[in-house]
Amino acid sequence: MPSIRIGFATDFNLLNEQVGIGTTLPTARLDVAGQIRADNTTGSGGVSTITRYDGFSNSSQTLGNTVSIAETSKGNLNSISGEIIIADGKTITVSDGVSLAAGRLDSLTVLKTFDLPSGGTSGRIATPEKGSTRYNEDLGQLEFYTGYEWRTVGSYDGSGRGRGVFGGGQPTGGTAIEYVNISSTGNSQDFGSLLSSYHSMGSFSSTTRGLFMGSGPVAINNIEYVTIASQSNSIDFGDLVTACRNPLTASSSTRGLSGSGTAIDYVTISTLGNALSFGNLSESRSFASAIASPVRAVFAGTQVSMEFVTISSTGNAVFFGNLGYSRRIGGFSNTVRGIFGGSYDIEYVTIASSGNSIDFGDMNFRSNFNNGGCCTNIRGLFVGGSTPGASNVIDYVTIASTGNAQDFGDIGYAKQHVAALSDSHGGLGGF
Predict the structure, then answer these.
(1) Among 38, 40, 222, 351, which residue has the fewest nearby CB atoms (within 10 Å)?
(2) Per-residue pLDDT tens for 146-163?
(3) Which residues pair with 170 in a beta bridge?
(4) Of 107, 130, 152, which residue constitutes the final position of a domain?
C-alpha cells in the first residue's frame, strides 16, 4: 500500500490513506478537528450526501445529533436528497440500541397533514399486516385490517355481542320479548315482557340498550327500553313527539330515529326522556323499514322511493333512490350495505352512495312481508311476518354476499309486525 502525504498548511493532510482536516496527524480514515457543516443538515455529526468511492464512506453511519427533515413541498423533503431509504433486510439502530427493520419506524410526529394510502375496494392488498390502515375511496371511509378482514374505522371487535332481541307482534305474544344469538342458528329464547301488549312497534338500539316505541292498532307515543345483555322486562323511557303505529326506525351508537307518516323524531339513547322533532319525510310511510350506517339513515317501503338523513344533524329527508316496487318490508344493515326484504324479493343498497336498489335474492317464504329485521356486521335476520298468515319463521342472509334467505329457526309465537333490534348493527360501526 503506498504512503502519500499531501499537505496544505494545517488545513488538509493525507497520511497513509487517512485524511486530516485541521490536523497534521490524522488517526482515522477521516479525522476532522472542529465543526462539520453540510448543506442538508445542521450541527456536528449530521448527514450529508457523500458519494461512496472505494470505501471512503462506511456502510454504517452514526448520527450524533438530531437530523431535521423539513418540508419544501408536498411529498418532497429537502434533506438527505429528499428521503431516507432503509434497504430490504437492513435496519436503522437508534441511540437506545433498538433496531428498526426495513419499512418500519418506532414513532413519527407529523405537524401538518399526513396522507394515508388510498384506493378502491379492489385495490386492497390481499394479505396486509394486521393494523394496516388506508382510505377506501369507494366507501368514503378509513378502514383497517384486523388480521383476517378489512373493517371501517369506527368498527368494534364485537366480542361477546351479537344478540338479536324481538318484541311485540300481532296477533299473539304481544307482550313477549325474545332473543337469539345471531351468529348461530336456532329457536329464540325468552327475554322478558313489554309493559303492555303491542303489535306494531318500532325499535332501535345502541351497543347496550334497546328501545321499543309506538304501537297499534291505535297509534300511541310510548317509548320503553331494555338492557340487551341481560334478560328482563322493559322499563319506561319517555314519549315520542308523534304517536304512531309501526314506525320506521334506525340508529347510530348515540341517537335513535323514529319516522312515521311524514314526521321524524329522535332521542339520545343513553338518556331517558321524551323525543324531539328531527325533521320530515317527503312521503308518508308506515309498516316499512329504515337502515343505518354510523353516518346515514335510509327510509324505505310503502312507497317506491327511498330517502335519507344524516343522523348526527337534524333536517328533512332527501331522495336516495327507488326500490324495485313498493311493499311492506323489513330491513337491516352493516356499515356499508343495507338490505330490504319483503313479499318475494330481497334488495340491497350501498348506504354511502345514493341510487336504486339492486336484486339480492329471494325470501325463504316467497310471500313473507310485515317482518322485522336485525343483524350483526356479517349476518342479517328477517323475523316473523305474513305468509300471508302470521309466521314464526326466522330467516337469515350473509350481508356481504347475495343469495336467497335460509332458515335460521323459529320465534316462540307466530306473529307479524315484529320489532327487532341488535347490539351489533351497522349504525354502531359494525361487528
Answers:
(1) 38
(2) 776 677 665 544 556 899
(3) 416
(4) 152
